[in-house]
## 1
Amino acid sequence: MKVQLVKIAHARSGDKGDTANVGLIALHDDFYPILVREVTSTRVKEHFKGISKGDVERFELPNLGALNFLLHKSLDGGGTLSLMTDAQGKTFSTALLRMEVEITDDEAQGLD
Amino acid sequence: MKQTIRVAAGQGFWGDLPEAPVQQVEGGPVDYLMLDYLAEVTMSIMQKQKARDPNAGYAKDFVPLMKRILPTCVERNIRVTANAGGVNVRGCADAVVGVARELGLSGKLQIGIVTGDDIMSRLDEFLDSGIELRNMDTDEPLSSVRDRIQSANVYLGAWPMVDALKRGAQIVVTGRVTDTGLTLAPLIHEFGWEANDWDKMSSGTIAGHIIECGAQASGGNCQFEWQNIPDMANVGFPIAEVSADGTFVITKHEGSGGRVNLQSVKEQLVYEMGDPHAYITPDCVADFTTIRLEDAGENRVRVFGVKGRPATDSLKVSISYSAGFKAVGTLVYAWPDAYAKAQAADRILRARLERLGLRFERVLTEFVGVNATHGPLAGPPSADAAEVQLRIGVRGPERSAVERFTKEIAPLILTGPPAVTGFAGGRPKVEEIVAYWPALIPREIISPKVEVFEA
């Protein structure tokens, strides 16, 4: 079945120049393998097309049950140059949580 | 030696909750108060203020704050680390001395200052000697913006502050030091940690990272169960309670609002994260993939297991330069067809800018209520939307063109689509853009300076 990431993860995002970072954190340890399997850098790049113009890098933090994404060329130049409402990328976190991922019936057991 | 040292965060940025540092020193036991005032572009704002008034150029709010909390700090022996000095560290320290005298505390405390971060006057010397100070993001050499530079400061680490604390400073005022160094310095000083004990340097750095954004670690901006985080009106700022072995507990004062739990700490850990294997500071390279977290009771999270590696040979430089002008105008369109009206207004405005022959580097239109934060991910707006805000911004090298743009917003009310409002604020303001240029510089050519004197 398909489930929206907001059901299995929380997130916080921020900026470093023109790059937005999104930290995606599993709501339970059981959900971390789903994030690792489903939320690839390719899928995240596709998800943010029309928003992010650069590459997407992914880093794994199994110790925190989290993934960190760097979305390059995403903030209209970043910092004071940017004309965007969200020049600091603060809402990229929930934008990622809109993504739908495929989970198995077993994995769905853990959902509320 | 104390078993644990409690370092309390009082400000996450210049302009954070004014009452927070007061509550941190009065609301329960703490040993140190750390105050982070400097964001990436703050130095250039301060540089401008100093150009107008040689006595300005630092975080002015720090002085009245010190007036309020200095008696408590002296009475309870709470020491303060603050990068409030901006581009006028001495001016800031002198103002604190003035306050101490007013309060009758002369002779009762020492003030330390850390300088040497300001390299503005040495830039040509560096460029001539082949240090190009290339932009870390774009790889362009600094010479391409040399004539537009407004400030240049090296990020110093914890060690100059350790020196000031060792020499008895109760209040340490600095210019550009790292946020994390403000927390790490007290720990090195209290526990006598060695500079090459990279695991402990990294542990203290991560403690600093968790508390440096203030309440963002204790319930603020927290997505996890945000609806039931208690008493946010009285949110407690975070405290790192650190042991000599480098392990620590993140907590907050008893009776304060907000929440410290695994989720609030994890959210702050990933904030503004780059490569988690290499969090680079002047003091060490911390590895975030080694961090272990444990629930240690209500509003207590234990952090342990941190590993780190040697510091690099470079220091980061924060350079600001003038990069043109910008302005943003907004109007609000009401039901029915609010989005269609806002889109029509945008087309009309762009056509008028075109006819005027105004050229910009960038024109950006957003529709607040439709796509301003999540772009196309938000999907099509409801046809029944009560209102949509048109938000249009321009950026360019000439002030006059941007100025002319600001005169085109209000006329849309009488010369564009109907049911429009929201222009009470007058014409948009033209802003000079001061942009950020991050670069690296060899560590050995930078000499931090520490002075300690009696108030």
## 2
Amino acid sequence: MTKHSAKKPSVATYADHEVINPPNPLRKALSTVKSMDPNDDPVARAEQALVQLSGEFSAWMEAECKRLDQARCAVKSKGFSKATREALFHAAHDIKGQAATFGYPWVAGSADSLCRLIEHTPDMNRIPVSLVDQHVDAVRAIVRESARPEVLGIADELTKRLREVTEEFLTHENRDRPDYLEGILAPPLAPSDQSF
Amino acid sequence: MIRIDFNKLRFLVIDDNAHMRRILRTLLHGFGARDVYEAEDGAAGLEAFTHYMPDIVLTDWAMPIFDGLELAQMIRQPGANANPYVPIIMLTGHSEKKRVMEARDAGITEFMAKPISAKALYQRILNVVANPRPFIKTKTYFGPDRRRNVNPNYVGPERRKGGKADVIRQTALIDKARVAG
């Protein structure tokens, strides 16, 4: 083991790796207080700032749905190519990630199912356009009808059925890749409140 | 208790989605940050990283030109830029195990699956500020120590060569602060 300069990152050298302890310049932003002022809670301030922004969320969600629809139309008119596939995937992926923040958590499941369909079908030309249509229409319908009290139940049913059909299709398409199939059928590792 | 003065930190937010950039900027300003820079793809992000020298990078995964993973690999090049040790927080809709491992192996410091919340983002930032991990350099990896814990029940070969001294016990600064508080 070899120690290097203390001013620069300290480095411990082992047989096949080095362990480096860089200086922590972010320490400048740390301080210790005896107790936190309840009126100065940064998380509460940020949440409040988000509430103030939330008036824009429905328009943003509409814009994301429009983008998804345009991506679907491009697939239908031009077929699946690297560009059209990516545009459709990114549009669905953004909705999956943002729906809950925008106040539409029940949309995320259908968008996620579409992401899985696009991502895990080995030959993109075998992705059934009708199944893409059903996903996109489901996402748009759930957003459109989100003010209705029964939307949660409808969204659940739609998402469940879309997932079933998608998983069945993916299982068939990946039948010769058991390891891959096992990987994509595994539950997510990282819920939003967990890090690795 | 530990407190972060956000106005002493510079943030770079890289996301191709303008709505998500706005949300992140709003949250960071809500925390008290003043210096929040934005970029809309990996290439612009790398340029902004070089130009603004942020203290913390928040990046999306799926982006045009090059993605968040490629961006992280470019930043984690010892000698290639001013700060290869910068904390990188990845915010992404991906949550599959394979993806999380890929992000870890690219040198991402913290991983956050969307949907994001103010609390979860704050915790990630607190972690990188108060509890930085050592960096590991091997032939194939340069980035934060991927071993967060020492597992006494681990059964298998020791992949790092170097004997007992190779086990890096990390007492978190944040834990020390909690005890002190």
## 3
Amino acid sequence: MASKAHQKPVPLTIFITVVLGVWVVLAAFPFLWTLWGSFKVEGDFFSKANWAAALTGELTQVETGGQFTGNGYYGAWVEEEFWRAAWNSALVCLFVVTISLTLGTLGGYALSRSPYKYAFWFLIIALVFRALPQITLVSGYLPVFFEFNMWGHLPTAIVVLIAINQPFTLWMLHSFFKNIPQDLDESAMVDGCNRFQAFRHVIVPVMWPGVITTGLFSFLLAYNDFAVTTLLLNQENQTMIPKIGSFLGTTQTKGNVMFAVSAVVSVTAPLFVMILVFQRQIVSGLTAGAVKG
Amino acid sequence: MKHKTFFWFVLPSALAMLLFIFLPMVSIVIQSLHVSHEQVIVEVESCGPFGCRQSTTIDQEATEALRAAKPLGQFAGLTTYLDRGHLAVNEVGQAWDASQSWRAFGASMLNLPFYKAMAFTLTFTFVVTPLVIIFGFLIAVAVNSATKVIRGQLIFVSLLPMMITPLVGALILFWMVDARGIVGSLLQDISGDPNLSIKASTPLMWIMLMVYGVWHSAPFAFIVYYAGLQTVNTETLEAAMIDGATRAQRIRYVVVPHLLPLTTFIALMQLMDNFRVFEPIISFSASAHATSLSWAIFNDLGGETRQLSSAAATSVLTVIGIIILLTPVLIRTWRDFGRK
């Protein structure tokens, strides 16, 4: 395909290769380094003498008798009960994703099919809501949640995350439904379906690509959240990210920073798998809003 | 779609947003105008063998009763906004009168918590956003000209910094630039200063937070630009080539105009997201050197004493900031809609 006219001059090729090389190192190396380091002892990963100790693992050898150690993971998952946080995270993600997608598909579908002005204003208000920093909302919740004894429980955090997720879900699904031809559900209605039946039997079977993409981002919002879950959940209901946050306060002084390192690697692993599996959907989701303007 | 059907379809979402986004907004405005009750103090006369004495004690019951009766606290008007923790009107006035130069005035402003947070938030927003756009564009052009075979892997690697949990991503970088970490030691070697520590220096901490910001967000700009580059009209490019346009001219007059609307989109998303910068400050334990508006709210809400009014006032000021940032976009959207 590459015709002569498309060939690049040599300096440009070199420049592009350098940019790519530097970027790949910047993007990937921190993760590899932390993964490697999580199997060492603190004296090696944070070596006062020589950073290369993390590679050779001298102290790891001395302290544990092997090149690699799982002590950090044991400490985090068993001693500090990180498994409990992992289970809480799983629950939160599951419910946030399913419920916000259910609400979002209904709303997004209606918004994409309504020709009236109020549908447009609805979307604009949702955009403004999307822009609000989540932490400002949390300061609005706290007095009310204390008053009604709702503070600290998982369902509270789930409901809040669903609501915070709505503006984004609506925008995303709205633009996906816009791409599904209107004739489809209208012909079903000519055949005697009502609006909901048309949605149920005609739209639902073809909407899955959009729903999966939106679901991925809802999952990320719930999984990555720090502000809401830290301030709204009590100690035993904490999800993974606030738990890591609390490691920073407590364990760092005890010299157990490796617990935090192992926990960080444990949190990263599922995200890694998710990107691996759903790369195409993530890319299409990120560009869905943009390319159509 | 009929009005009634529309209503029932959007009702669940609308209700969720009304209850958990709109009402909290109303709530922070109300809260910020109130302060918590002072404790009820009673004077008691205690008489013993050596005569009677007046003493004051806190009437726990009455305090509880008052708090239960009026959980909002007492109405305080704008006092919370004007106090030292927020707009600090008096302190700003004094600093203005006392300082000889702009520089001195700026320095004393930075001692006030709200202006300190504001300064970092704005610097972060307006430094990181353009850098994200520039680096995202560079990476997109580079990946686009790489061989097709490795593009998938390149995109995968590029997605990592963006998809990672912000708190976790910032921690990973922070551990590397720690004085005992790999990048930290490297920096010490380069600068020749064995005591160089990012944790101890305000300018270095600011730079590091912004480096994190660019690292985290550049992939977003990259993905959007990369998708844009796939849809550049090749016929236009070839026509330009036939007309004798150089490579630089083709990029300048064909590719860049094609990507311009995307830039607006990226800038908008980035302004919104960078304005709420928060997690890296926690991860880097940077609060001594840099605070942001979101961090200030978090700091008020966490801890033993929850300062709800103070947090609410900062929240209202943050929301006003967001609205100011969004106004140009909203006006444009409104005009576009009016034209249709």
## 4
Amino acid sequence: MERKLRGRGMAASWYGIARTATIDRAGAWAELDDGGTAKIVTGVTEIGEGILTLLCQVAADELGIKPSEVTIGDNDTARSPEAAHAGATRQTYMLGNSVHLAAQEAKKHLFEELADHWEVELDTLQSFDGEVWANGTNLRITMEDAVAICKARGVVPVGSASFTAHGTGLDPVDGSGSPWQTYVFGTQVAEVEIDTYTGEIQVLGIWAVHDVGRAINPRGVEGQIEGGVVQGLGQALMEDYETVNGHTTTHGFAKYILPTSLDIPQINCTLVEDKDPLSPLGAKGIGEPSLVPTAPAIMNAIYDAIGVRMKSLPATPEKILKALKEKTPGREQYVQNARAQRAQAHRSI
Amino acid sequence: MPKLKIDLEVNNRKISKETDAHKRLLDFLRDDLNLTGAKEGCGAGECGTCSVFVDGKLVKSCLMPVAKASGAKIETIEGLADPGSLTPMQKAFHKTGASQCGYCIPGMVMAATSALRENPSADIEEIKERLGGNICRCTGYTKIFEAVEIAKAVIAGDMPEEALDEEPVGESYIGHNVRRLDAPSKVSGRLRYAADIKMHDMLQMQVLRSPHPHANIVSIDTSEAEAMDGVVCVITSDDVPAETDGFGVFVHDQPIMARGKVRHVGEAIAAVAAEDLVSARRALSKIKVEYEELPGVYDPEEAMKAGAAVVHDYAADNIVKHIPVRKGDVASGFASADIVLEDDFSTQQVEHAYLEPEAGIAYVDPDDVIVVMSPSQNITHHRHMLAHILGQPINKVRFIMSPVGGGFGGKEDMIYQGMLALMAMKTNRPVQLNFTREESIIASAKRHPSRVHYKMGLKWNGEITAIQFSMISDGGAYGMSSEGVMRKAAILSCGPYEVHNLSVDTTAVYTNNTPSGAFRTFGGMQAQFATESMMDMAAEALEMDPFEIRRINMMKVGSKTHTQHKLTAASLDACLDAAETDSRWEKGTPNVRGSYRSDLGGDDTRAPCTLGARFMDRKTSQDERVV
């Protein structure tokens, strides 16, 4: 046998978006402010995924200004409307739509004043990147001036919105129910190389394909996928929180092994955009789903390379060496049984 | 405390200061100079969040006694660029989205800067090696590598400086790679996380934790600790209203501090607030706790057996939650199968390992509102739970989420905010609690480990006829998010396939192990690891391509999920097609064909890591030169 063997495996996955088996909701306030800027206020809690940037994009796109001109008031139970928690792959879906709707309402008030001021039909008005104009006319001003006109007419352009995702509880007996209103799917392929002398596994490539509904910030989506893949890789190959009679033996990062820069495969992301039909933005989510197929794709790749099926995570070098040692030559018994059964079935036809 | 006079240069300024002799360089920078860009991620030199330059060399400042820095030239993240500007490296991190939570980023920027200072033409393998001492938990490193390569090219003049600018917008900001608005504050070390914030007159809090996995608390004597110099207040569960003490996401089984009994190692027993951290730590050792150790239970299957130690009186069988899902007729499904596969799978307990250990500040504001600032992933629910426990109207408890240095679900379950709030109410002063890494690891919840027994019936054509899926998970000492995790695991269990006959059971069990709680995928990965392994095993048994067997069974528009929800949208077909095409997948049965498949390697894979090989190469080439 050659020392270093390679193989490939794949796995598919699915996931639900927003809180599970219950109704989910989130609120937001929006204001078109002086200077053609905007304030968005919501209890959203950014935990590093980039939700604040995403919400600035959503608000800016709806209002017709630049994302950098949006100020977000966030993460405070006493100063902002309820947005609930940072989890369940819910913030893009819940907050994105809520902010979108709140911004839409603020813009509606501005446009109503401006249409009246310009004596044009409301639906001719449009705005983008700091400018407002009326289609079919030469009327075009900055958002700064538009807000000034609106305010001079006695109106502060504000909006608020609540977005709801309808989920139901599960039946206590058969579990039936509609736990989420939208689902995402994904598929990952992994390529591994295994050193059969040391049992060390390197993941050389991951192809990660995920449906995100609509990628609001593609680079941000990739960042979530790459982070999820590497956490999945950590769980697949090295991470193991151990306790002996309730006492941990993995007190710190010397014992609890995490992926570092040398463990990282080339990660090739492809985004599928199957727009959510049940929400105005059409975006879904990616935070958690990106992690789901990684470990099984790697285990299937290990099998492809060396013919041992790792059924207990993590697949550490020690476990790989043990499995290689115990491996009986030839295919696994169940495969031989299946082949025999199938031959038998064909004979009896 | 013994003092020490230190003379050194920090970011080109001469500093002469008296400080505590026990301090590390990291403490001196953060506490004495208020340079909080260097973070304490582990305090043991393992994570790199505290990286600074000492006389031009990259050093982990948590490992260096401040006395050793005397006379040295120190450069921190704050000193890399003038205020209001960023270095090309920092701009490149901004451009590529290399910062997510940002907690590791100051250290990562220092390591990346060091890599290019040491070797401006370092190739990607060398860059990776030089970043090897810095852990990032959010990004998967990929955008960081990209940033370092762009910075390298710009610095070398191989790429114009405009390469660092944001891409111009097209017709919409939706779908546009807007650079992260919070990145400049993260790549420059300016963003202050909870542990970086100081308030006037603030006390430091420390927590006494249980050394036992299961024990009755006979008595707690705090008198000696309370009498110590610098100690302001000590709290135990006696300070929490007994009628309302108890919180949790689904079942309110967790007291703010252990009440009468401890259920896992690391559970909070008492908390001390003192004028400074050292006094608070010393006082912990003076709290006398008398325990009566109890037999513990450490295995979920053992815990369900009659006679096992009972962790919570309300649950004599130690079961936190059992979720059943039933669809169709499993018996007839298996009867109609041509082949039945049966196997067992298991996954381990996993630590979130966010680089920011738990931290927080609480104070009572002038309107008598109790304010808790902490990296909480669920300020809404934490506010509810705390208001209930403290008997306060909801609007008298205010939660502010401080910047979160990584969460992944681990900062969703409330474990310390109650103690902070109580202490602030008791002392009427701001109180801060910063966990050590070791404390974070023993006190915070983990990913649920799982044991799955799986039975799958299939037709020769690959169609799944029935699945029986049973999962047991160790929930540890408290309920936390276990119920939700079991529910999600059950709903997602059999994967993205339409299975007409299935029987699924997921069960979380109390033990005296570290609690399991919310963690990115919430049970979804544990369940689908088993399913996706079975799918490949079935594909081999049926001599089918793994994509093909999945296509035969995949959910489509109109399919009914395992919980009998009729889908109005489904995109697995598109995902499978794209993955097969993008990876240049060679069709075939997954029967150990790695040695002869033709789709391996290529530009979309990396070279295997051969750590240290470049030093060997250098040595060889030097030897050759000698020859």
